C-alpha cells in the first residue's frame, strides 16, 4: 500500500493517519427497498483484483470521510475525494 | 513407498539413493469426475478425503503456482477448537480430532504438537467472556480450563504481568491445541491423494469455467480445456476471481495478513499464546524461531505483501506482552491473501450452479480447519449433502439471517 494519501483538505499525509472502513462501491438502497437489494448492499462484495473504491476516514486529520480510488494489487493510488463529493457525483449517474 | 523407521534404515544403508518423489507430476487428462480448483491445504485435503473416505479417485487438483505456495505455507501453524458458537465449535473440534490422528492416517510426519493454547485476559469483563467461551466448549465436550494469574505465571513467567494498562489476570487454556508443521500438511495430503490416484496439476491456472445448459462442463486453463462432472472451488483469497467465472455473487473481501518469524532461539515459549488486549499471537517452532502475527492490514489487498505500519504495530503488541521479545531479531516476514467473509466464518456449500461447490471465507483461521474442511467438502461433493458439523456454513445464511459471527463484529470483513 502506498504510504502517502493526498487528502483533499489536508494535503499529502502518511496513511497511518487514516482508518479504513471498506468498499465504497455498494450504494445504500432506499429504506423501503426489497430485502434482496439490502442483502446485496450489506453482504455482497464485488471484491475485484485491481482498481477499487474504499472509504477511508481521516481520523488524525480533518476527520472527513474520504473515498480512495486505488489498485489493490499494485497499491497505486489514482485519486482521493471527499465522500460527500463522491456521493454527489455518483447520485447524478 | 510407505514411510517407517525401517524405510529410513533401508534408505540409509543404500546411501539415500532410492527415495522416490512423494507425488507424480501428471499432465491433465481430458476429463475427471471432480476437479478441485486450488492446491492449498483445503484443496489437497478435499482430494485426499474424496479418494480415501468416499472412493472418488478420478480427481484433479489444479493449482496456479506450486502446492504449498499459498496460505498453507504462509500461516502461523496453530490448531485449536476454542470456539463458542454452535455453528463453529463442533466443526473445529472435528478438525482437531482429525489432526490428532492425521500423521498415522496419511503416513507422513506433520509434527503435530499439542502444546496447548492460552488466551490471556486482562479485565474482569474479558474473564467473564472467556469463562463463557470455556463453558460453551465444555458443553460441547471440548477441554477448556480457566487459569488464574498465578497459574499462568507458573507456565509463562516471561510475560508482562504488571502491565500498567493491560495487566494479565489469567487465561483460557485448551491443552489439546497446538501447532503443526504447515508445509508437511500440504505435502502429506498431496502424497496421500496422489497415491490414491488423484492428479495434482501444478503451474496450471484456471482462466474460465465452461457451462452448458446451466451446468459446469469443465474449466479453461493455461494447459487447455479440462472436462469434469463436478467442480469444487477452494481458492482462498482468489475465490472471488474464480467465482466470477461462474457469475457467483459472494460475501467475500480479500485482505492481506502478515506473519513473522524470529531468529532461532533456545526453547523459551512452550505454548501458543494469544494477547487478549491486542490481536497478537505467538508460538515457537521446533526449529527455535518465534512465529507470530497480529491483525490484517485493514485495506483490501490481493498482494502477498503487507505494510510497515502493521509490522510496527505487531512488534509493539509483542513487546508489550513479552518485553524480552525486544532483544530478538526478526528473520523473515511474509503476507498471505485472505478470503475474509462478512461474518468471520467460512462457507462450505453448494452454489446456484448445481454441480459447482464452494469452499471459502476462512478469513485468517483456515489452517486449523484444513482436515475438517477437506472432509466436509469431500462429503458434500461426493454425497451432494452437507456434513452435519458444517451444516451452519451455508452460502445463503446472510440472506436468511443466520450469521455465525463469533466475534460479534457485524458485516465488516476487515474487522473479523
Write the SSE topology:
The complex is a heterodimer of chains A (93) and B (416).
Chain A: E1 4-7, E2 11-14, E3 19-23, H1 35-43, E4 51-57, E5 65-71, E6 77-82, H2 83-92
Antiparallel strand pairs in A: 1-2, 3-4, 4-5, 5-6
Chain B: H1 5-13, E1 31-37, H2 41-54, E2 59-62, E3 78-79, H3 89-106, E4 117-121, H4 124-139, E5 145-148, H5 149-155, E6 170-174, E7 178-179, H6 182-195, E8 199-201, E9 206-212, E10 215-221, E11 224-233, H7 239-244, E12 252-264, E13 272-274, E14 281-284, E15 289-300, H8 308-321, E16 330-341, E17 347-350, E18 356-360, H9 370-383, H10 397-400
Parallel strand pairs in B: 1-2, 1-11, 2-8, 4-13, 11-18
Antiparallel strand pairs in B: 3-7, 4-6, 5-6, 9-10, 10-11, 12-15, 12-16, 13-14, 14-15, 17-18
Describe the structure.
The complex is a heterodimer of chains A (93) and B (416). In chain A, a hairpin with a 5-residue loop joins strand 5 and strand 6. Chain A has a single domain (4-92), classed as 2-Layer Sandwich (Folate-binding fold). The longest helix of chain A has 10 residues, at 83-92. A 4-stranded antiparallel sheet of chain A has the order 3-4-5-6. A two-stranded antiparallel sheet of chain A has the order 1-2. Chain A is an alpha+beta fold and 93 residues long. Chain A is 20% helix and 35% strand. Chain A has helices at residues 35-43, 83-92, and strands at residues 4-7, 11-14, 19-23, 51-57, 65-71, 77-82. Chain B has 416 residues and is of the alpha/beta class. Chain B has 2 domains: 26-78 and 182-251 and 343-415, FAD/NAD(P)-binding domain, CATH 3.50.50; 114-176 and 253-341, D-Amino Acid Oxidase, Chain A, domain 2 (2-Layer Sandwich). Chain B has 10 helices and 18 strands. Chain B has helices at residues 5-13, 41-54, 89-106, 124-139, 149-155, 182-195, 239-244, 308-321, 370-383, 397-400, and strands spanning 31-37, 59-62, 78-79, 117-121, 145-148, 170-174, 178-179, 199-201, 206-212, 215-221, 224-233, 252-264, 272-274, 281-284, 289-300, 330-341, 347-350, 356-360. In chain B, strands 1, 2, 8, 9, 10, 11, 17 and 18 form an 8-stranded mixed sheet that branches. In chain B, strands 5-6-4-13-14-15-12-16 form an 8-stranded mixed sheet. A two-stranded antiparallel sheet of chain B has the order 3-7. In chain B, helix 2 crosses helix 9 and helix 3 crosses helix 9. The radius of gyration of chain B is 21 Å and the shape is globular. The model of chain B has no long low-confidence stretch (mean pLDDT 96). The interface between A and B is medium-sized, with 28 and 26 residues.
Amino acid at each position: 500500500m502506498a504510504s502517502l494519501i493526498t487528502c483533499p483538505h489536508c494535503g499529502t499525509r502518511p496513511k497511518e493517519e487514516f482508518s479504513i472502513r471498506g468498499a465504497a462501491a455498494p450504494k445504500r438502497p432506499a429504506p423501503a427497498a426489497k430485502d434482496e437489494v439490502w442483502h446485496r448492499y450489506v453482504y455482497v462484495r464485488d471484491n475485484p483484483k485491481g482498481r477499487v473504491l474504499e472509504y477511508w476516514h481521516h481520523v488524525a486529520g480533518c476527520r472527513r470521510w474520504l473515498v480512495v480510488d486505488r489498485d489493490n494489487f499494485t497499491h497505486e493510488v489514482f485519486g482521493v475525494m471527499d465522500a460527500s463529493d463522491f456521493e454527489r457525483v455518483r447520485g447524478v449517474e | 513407498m510407505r514411510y517407517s523407521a525401517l524405510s529410513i534404515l533401508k534408505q540409509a544403508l543404500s546411501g539415500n539413493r532410492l527415495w522416490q518423489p512423494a507425488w507424480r507430476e501428471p499432465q491433465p487428462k481430458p476429463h475427471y469426475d471432480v476437479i478441485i480448483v486450488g492446491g492449498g491445504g483445503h484443496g489437497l485435503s478435499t482430494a485426499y478425503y474424496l479418494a480415501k473416505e468416499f472412493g472418488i479417485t478420478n480427481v484433479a487438483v489444479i493449482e496456479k503456482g506450486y502446492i504449498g505456495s499459498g496460505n498453507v505455507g504462509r500461516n502461523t501453524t496453530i490448531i485449536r477448537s476454542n470456539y463458542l458458537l454452535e455453528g463453529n465449535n463442533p466443526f473445529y473440534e472435528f478438525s482437531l480430532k482429525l489432526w490428532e490422528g492425521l500423521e498415522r492416517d496419511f503416513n507422513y510426519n506433520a509434527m503435530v504438537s499439542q502444546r496447548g493454547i492460552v488466551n490471556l485476559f486482562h479485565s474482569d469483563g474479558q474473564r467473564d467472556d472467556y469463562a463463557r467461551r470455556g463453558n460453551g466448549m465444555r458443553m460441547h465436550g471440548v477441554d477448556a480450563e480457566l487459569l488464574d494469574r498465578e497459574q499462568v505465571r507458573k507456565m509463562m513467567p516471561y510475560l508482562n504481568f504488571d502491565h500498567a494498562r493491560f495487566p494479565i489476570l489469567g487465561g483460557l487454556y485448551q491443552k489439546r491445541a497446538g501447532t503443526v508443521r504447515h508445509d508437511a500438511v500440504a505435502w502429506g495430503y498431496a502424497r496421500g491423494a496422489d497415491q490414491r490416484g488423484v492428479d495434482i496439476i501444478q503451474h496450471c491456472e484456471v482462466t474460465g469455467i465452461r457451462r452448458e445448459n446451466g451446468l459446469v462442463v469443465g474449466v479453461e486453463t493455461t494447459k487447455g480445456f479440462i472436462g469434469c462432472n463436478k467442480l469444487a472451488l477452494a481458492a482462498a483469497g482468489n475465490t472471488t476471481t474464480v467465482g466470477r467465472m461462474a457469475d457467483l455473487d459472494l460475501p467475500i473481501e480479500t485482505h492481506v495478513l502478515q506473519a513473522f518469524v524470529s531468529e532461532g532461539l533456545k526453547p523459551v515459549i512452550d505454548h501458543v499464546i494469544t494477547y487478549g488486549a491486542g490481536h497478537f499471537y505467538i508460538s515457537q517452532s521446533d526449529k527455535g524461531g518465534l512465529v507470530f502475527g497480529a491483525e490484517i492490514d485493514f485495506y483490501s489487498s490481493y498482494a502477498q505483501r503487507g505494510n510497515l505500519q502493521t509490522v510496527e504495530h505487531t512488534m509493539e503488541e509483542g513487546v508489550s506482552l513479552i518485553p524480552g521479545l525486544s532483544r530478538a531479531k526478526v528473520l523473515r516476514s511474509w503476507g498471505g491473501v485472505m478470503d475474509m467473509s462478512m461474518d468471520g466464518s467460512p462457507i462450505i456449500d453448494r452454489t446456484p450452479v448445481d454441480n459447482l461447490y464452494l469452499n471459502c471465507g476462512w478469513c485468517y483461521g483456515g489452517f486449523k480447519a484444513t482436515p475438517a474442511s477437506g472432509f466436509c467438502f469431500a462429503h458434500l461433493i461426493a454425497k451432494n449433502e452437507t456434513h452435519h458439523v458444517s451444516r451452519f456454513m451455508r452460502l445463503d445464511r446472510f440472506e436468511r439471517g443466520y450469521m455465525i459471527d463469533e466475534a460479534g463484529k457485524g458485516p465488516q470483513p476487515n474487522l473479523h
